Amino acid sequence: MLERLEVRNYVLISSLIMEMGKGFSVITGETGSGKSILLGALGLILGEKAKSDIIREGEKEAVVNALFSYQKNTAVENFLVERELDDEEGELSIQRIVRSSGRSICSINGINVTREVLEELGSLLVDVSSQHAHQSLLKAEGQRRVLDAYSLPVDDKKKYISAYQNMKAMETKLEKLKAEQEKREGEIDYISYCLKEIEKANITLGEDEAISEELKRIEASEYLSNEVSEAQSALRGDMERGAISELDSAVTALEKASKKDSSLDNLSSRLESAKIEIEDISDSLRDYLSSLTFSEGELEEKSSRLALLQRLKKKYGPSLENVIEKGEKFRSELDAYDSFEGETALCEKKLSELKKLLDMEADNIHSKREKGARRLEVEVLKNLSLLGMENASFHISVERGKLSLNGPDDITFLIAANKGEKVGSLALVASGGELSRVMLALKCALTVSDEVDTLLFDEVDAGIGGQVASCVAERLEALGKDHQVLAITHLAQIASKACDHFAVTKSVDNERTYSHITRLGKDERVKEIARLLSGDSEKISLEHAKRMLNK
Questions:
Q1: Do the Cβ atoms of 56 and 9 come closer than 8 Å?
Q2: Are residues 129 and 455 in contact, defined by beta-carbon separation less than 8 angstroms?
């Protein structure tokens, strides 16, 4: 509940203090006296955006302070505790400073907060019903908010929103995966072809160099054969001329000599070893000569193999090592693509599960809106009857539509103000006065389950008068029994029902204009009610005002 409001340097207000109490209070005043200015100052406390042009001329800043009281274990207390903004004294102090630089400072219990935080708290503290709110009731979004406030638990709405956001996020992820998959499909075909080409070649590191050397030897095979044959012939020759044959003779002779002189034993052994080594060389040359025999098919095969390796090096190289590395890279990319396809399939499965969950939450939302709509219709019709619209028909249409963040339904408020008329859209058939009464009827219905203590009505009397105004006043007075109700009005019927009456006046002092607000005493109320009745303080108006206040 709003306990105290202080305003300094706000438009025409130099300094203002307003002490508030429980029940139904009204604010009256001449047109242009500053009632809307006061409403704007309160709006700053509730988190509305601020402009520097609201600062009183010649001042550096505008300041608005408010003191609220609140009940324990309510949404307000939970809000403060969650953000560590609660006060040990159990009070709620809000300050808003707007400086000429355009900077706005918001604080809750002495702690600076963002305007968005203040706005969120403001919605829990004061419910504002203004001409703007009336206009919002003409829109589908405003009608949905009203029905949800009456029928839909916050947790249910949170569950639906979470399910919807998760489903949309998964849809977006899947779309991106499929787009990426489509983009990669052409690349994957090429990568698969390249990998098969490399794997089919079955490359061995250094193979190209080995084949090159072998082909060089094949090209020189005739020359090599002639030279090696000559060397082989020199070693072996015939029995009388070959080097090995001569070595045999030398070994035999030296062995004989060493029998007479042991000092020759070492030389005899060395010569024997040399002979064995030369015989081994001769055998190796013989084998080498045998290896120099190549078929045309073998030559063609090796040439083709080298050509293949050279082509692969040119395409993927420049070396065989690079070709092998490229093959490993292609294999990794294919594995990643397989994993990519698996992720896509998993996303599709998860999306299907999320859609089922969302459908379940949507069914729950729709069911509660349907049931709530029927209950709210009864409440609104009862209140409309008390507001002088006893022959009105009121219906809330809840039709399943396309799923959105706000639920699965298209919601429309339908009304017929008079008996026998066909119900139609509130926006098309309700007059200004009827719309004001529908709004009040809805407020009366919503306050049954609403934790907001303070209700502010601005221009609730728009388009009404006479008996209807008296009915509206009675409903506001009834609301004041359970809530703090503050109404800005021009009607005496409404003002006379208040337990507290504030008057806004305007004065000029030293060429400066000032707005003031005053709590009226009994005699002052009589004069103000008389002014509202006839615009003057004639005796008959004063008598009428006294009778209205004494009821």
A1: yes
A2: yes
**This model's pTM is above 0.85:** no
Name which of 166, 49, 180, 170 is nearest 118 in CA terms.
Answer: 49
Domain locations in the chain as residue ranges: 1-127+484-520, 183-337, 527-551
Share of the chain above pLDDT 90, in %: 26
Note whether 472 and 444 are within 8 A (CB). Answer: no
The pLDDT assigned to 149 comes to 84
Question: What is the rounded radius of gyration, in angstroms, for the C-alpha atoms of the chain?
Answer: 50
| CATH number of this structure's domain 1-127+484-520, picked from the four choices 3.40.1440.60, 2.40.440.10, 3.40.50.300, 3.90.550.10 | 3.40.50.300
How far apart are the C-alpha atoms of 537 and 521, rounded to whole Å?
Answer: 16
- Give the CA angle between residues 381, 499, 533 to the nearest 5°: 80
Query: Within the chain, what is the greatest distance between any pair of CA atoms?
Result: 174
Sheet of 500-509, strand order: 126-129, 454-458, 484-488, 24-29, 500-509, 512-519
- Tokens for 336, please give them: 């990643």
CB 7 within 8 A of CB 40: no
With 70 as the cut, is the pLDDT of residue 115 above it?
yes
Alpha helices in 387-431 (DSSP H): 426-429
- Give the single-character DSSP code of 90: -
Q: What is the pLDDT of residues 56-103, one digit of tens each?
A: 888 899 999 999 988 887 778 888 888 888 876 778 999 999 998 888
